[in-house]
Amino acid sequence: MMNKAPELLLAHHLKTLRLPTFLREHDKQARICAAEGLDHVRYLARLTELELIDRERRMVERRIKSAKFPAVKSLDSFDFKAIPSLNKMMVLELARCDWIERKENVIALGPSGTGKTHVALGLGLAACQKGLPVAFVTASALVNELMEAREEKRLQRRQRQLAKVKLLIIDELGFVPLSKTGAELLFELISQRYEQGSTLITSNLPFEEWTDTFGTERLTGALLDRLTHHVNILEMNGESYRLSQSRAKRMTP
Predict the structure, then answer these.
(1) How does pLDDT run across 19-60, given as a tens digit for each residue?
(2) Where along the chain do its domains lie?
(3) What is the dihedral of CA 121, 123, 126, 131, to 10 degrees?
(4) What is the value of pTM for the model shown?
(5) Domain 75-251: CATH class, spelled out
């Protein structure tokens, strides 16, 4: 038992310091470094590097979970050839996330099924991997959440929480018209985020038809004024991306 005491004490200290990779790898790496003739400095450097890599991986996983993506999709799996109208170089540049640091917005416009949500998820994933907090929500769910928060006297707290998110992704704006109250609450949130954080919106409607969603030209104009002041617009017109993907799968032997 006495021979095990140093190992038990080391394990206790590493757990206290929250170094799980160090705890898991120290014995294995000691044997490897001994076989390679590496000194204690290189041994410790290798362990700390493994700990940092694993810690970053766990942080990315937590950010992805916190974002509440409906699915995890990367831009690597997006078939840009299926949507020729989409500027691939612009999307890849956006994946660098500099636009988020500049507090700019992105609006993806196009008919249903053209891959807008996939691109939004890919950009959201890239932001998580860059260490940025992200939140994903559909427009209807967001409006319902804000209306419930107002009824329960916690609207300001929820607005402050959403205002702090570096990237807010609002999917499917325009699929259903908003009530007067819902439209005003969404406008208020976007106004609060103006030049404070980035917002990515996907919509199946061109800008001139957004009045159908928000109800009045005055509110729609004020909303677009804030969203498009610093904006990157992704035009995604063409045949349904999902349909072309399904067709390609059927043709694959």
Answers:
(1) 888 888 888 988 898 898 889 899 888 888 888 888 888 999
(2) 2-63, 75-251
(3) -100
(4) 0.83
(5) alpha beta
